[in-house]
Amino acid sequence: MKIKRAYEKPGADDGVRILVDGLWPRGLSKAELKIEKWEKVVAPSKELRNWYGHEAEKWPEFRRRFRAELEKSPRKEALERLAEIAKKGDLTLVFGTRDAEHSNAAVIAEAIAEKLKRGAPNRSRPSGRGGKSGT
Questions:
Q1: CA of residue 3 relative to chain centroid, distance
Q2: pTM score
Q3: Under DSSP, is residue 100 helix (H, G, I), strand (E, B) or coil?
Q4: Domain ranges in the chain?
């Protein structure tokens, strides 16, 4: 999974490209973006987006607030859909802002990665089906 600015050229290894912004990137058509879907429901609320304004000093609080929004419907379900796509293959989260490191896409990618990690089987744990626990 990766994140990529909408203004960057789509790559052959992008896999499924999904726009995760609440606003359409200025001056670009759907054909130019080469996206399969616009999952705008997963984007931060208008209030949070306006408060943040991409001011780097607000990043830690933006990240915390946006993570809280991602835990609630309808963003929670949208995040689950994205995680399912990522589980099956390459996923590129497309966004419009210049600062990738401090973007909503970075927070979404982090949340998806955590979901996939939690969903991965942990082979070091006992199965609880009659086997020894090793403790």
A1: 8
A2: 0.86
A3: helix
A4: 2-119
